[in-house]
Amino acid sequence: xxxxxxxxxxxxxxxxxxxxxxxxxxxxxxxxxxxxxxxxxxxxxxxxxxxxxxxxxxxxxxxxxxxxxxxxxxxxxxxxxxxxxxxxxxxxxxxxxxxxxxxxxxxxxxxxxxxxxxxxxxxxxxx
Length: 127
Prior knowledge:
By secondary structure, this protein is mainly β. The protein is built from 2 helices and 11 strands, in the order ββββββαβββαββ. Strands 2, 4, 5, 6, 9, 10 and 11 form a 7-stranded mixed beta sheet that branches. It is globular, with a radius of gyration of 13 Å.
């Protein structure tokens, strides 16, 4: 079992930056693929980025477009999402998720592949 707690959300003006953090407790953090998803009001949850234990990562290029960077610190059991050049369309609840590497052996983009989820943190971008 892995417990995930997100932090770092808030209100920011368009063009601004935020860094989200997700602290994990439980089993060996490096054994997990960590993902960030977001869900805007009235929309389905969508993939943002994910990173494997060794640091390889992938992004949803259509929405991120080089503005977001995912990273992790295995010594601190924490994954980060640095978000720059934020736009109103980035407004959503952002969720951290974990998938055990031996179960997925990939960097999945599908939310169903992730067994563990945080409670989410709200990001609001004003125009």
